[in-house]
Here is the input.
Amino acid sequence: MEAIEISGKESLTDNSKRYMDKVVIYMFTATWCGPCKNIKKVLFGEDSIIDMEKRDLIKILKIDIDDPQNSDLNDCFAIKSLPTFVINKTVYNKTKSINEFKKIIKFSGGDINVLVNNINKTLEDHTLFETNGPNNRK
Here is the structure.
């Protein structure tokens, strides 16, 4: 599993749309952040804590808070500590008749168990996509 590096709002929007068929995790991080480094080791190595069969259902978008192009994103998501994760999924908006992203949960900290539990809960609490519309990307 690899993360996609995000640089700017347009990059985040484009990649979020590209992966609407996945649970998308925004990972706010920094190169100097110790807990961020520890999380990266267990998320992205060969021995990733994410089960092999679940890796295809998840896409991680990594947002470096020190990248000047990401300053708007830091403000928009009210990033106060690192690492911060925002888990999103696609839902069908019946009123607008379109699929759109919905934030499921936002949390911060370097506790691996909290990260794994939130990912697993997101994947188990619902069918991966609550989509029924004409642009369903199942």
Q: What stands out?
A: Helices lie at 9-18, 34-44, 52-55, 71-76, 112-124. The first helix runs from residue 9 to 18.
